[in-house]
Amino acid sequence: MAHRLLVRRLWTLSAKDIRCLPASTATAAASSSSSFSTSLQSAPTRVSFLSPSRTLPRSLLHTSRREVSFNVQDHEDFTDRVIKNELPVLVDFHAQWCGPCKILGPRLEKAVAKQKGRVAMAKVDIDDHTDLAIEYGVSAVPTVIAIRGGDIVDHFVGIKDDEELDSFVSKVIGK
Fold first, then answer.
1. Choosing from 30, 72, 91, 101, which is the catalytic residue?
2. Is 20 designated active site?
3. What are the Thioredoxin domain coordinates in residue numbering (predicted)?
4. Which of the chain's ends, N or C, has fewer CB atoms near its CB within 10 Å?
5. Is the pLDDT reported for residue 11 higher than 80?
């Protein structure tokens, strides 16, 4: 029974698990089973097959995805990344429990992504950063405030469709 469990465990190991196993562990696991040792002798070759030389090229492993938005961490972070930003910044005041916020967030990110770096987007959770919500007069969520050069340029409250979001973002960047 123990041999079956060992064999089942060895065969169900993921590639990541096998890569993390030292070759001596794989060899020891294979030789610990006396009656199944011949069927498990291929385990060391599996480890060598999945060696780093056979994995994806580094360029594919480390492809970075440019983030469209960022989460505000505290008041100082808000000042550094929003108020002092050279780009116009859309500040999305939202809450985890807010249904319309969950709909608006991805739509707004898509509208910002279409601008290809001409506008930034900050996300502020009002439950975590009540002080910022009060400071900017947020009384309902979702509220989006456009800030350019530290000054409020425009804002809206509630959900909007894709065309309205695109025109709002275009207006903010001055297109």
1. 101
2. no
3. 50-174
4. N
5. no
